[in-house]
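Appendix B. One record, verbatim.
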Amino acid sequence: MPKTLRHLIARFSSVLCLSFAICCLSASYALEITKPAQRIVSLLPSLTETVCALGACNRLVGVDRYSNWPESIAQLPRMGGGIDPNIESIVALKPDLVLMANSARGVERLRSLGLTVLTLEPKNYADIQNALGVVAKALGLPAKNSDGVWLAMNHEIDEIANSIPQYAKSQRVYFEVSSVPFGASESSFIGETLKRLGAKNILSSAVGQFPQVNPEFVVRAQPDIIMVGDSNLADMKARPGWTHLIAMQSGRVCTFPPKESEVLVRPGPRMVEAARLMSKCLVDKSDSQPKSNP
């Protein structure tokens, strides 16, 4: 076989493989990526962080208004958000790849303008691992890169879990995501982390990953520990019956400032940091800490 023909076949095969893998794994849209993305716009913070965790921060040319990690992206142009993407500004940047949530607005509009859009919206551990692999393929990186990031994350979470004393385990936890209220069930990435840390979730997987919660259910469930962003605490105290929650009365409520809340609710490479925050909460707020000797 002539050398030129072999080269063309090899190139076509690699392009086909990359396109097929992204299409199947994202379950979103049949993409045609002929070469690794070099100019990327990310409109979801967890995907921005995923790109950077894979060592490709320098390929980002624009991000959404909420992407704020790592610090190296601080000066990048802001392209709006998932519900209000700035279509004109995105097109003007001439990206060869746009990363968005499945639920984001403007996806079809951007595609109709000739842009390649990859939609991913991780909600559990399997989704996060998948997103790492899919983004790595779009960047033209070998699977070992995304596998390495994933294995390192899991190793660190295991170490955090192993460091938690027995008295702080088996605590029944209610994790509130927003003041509507929405909670994180045991099948969400937040719930999966809590389980690995030895906690029990009052919201089962049967209610979905991030269900809207009936406040009366939480009162009846009487969680041992409540985890919530500090901006939601006032709403909690105003709910009927919540001031009678034992966790509220005994101070077993972990309130997280905005920067920490962002880490906790972003399904991406900073889940290790989120696990540390949850672990500290479980240890600090456990109602069965051993008494110190006088």
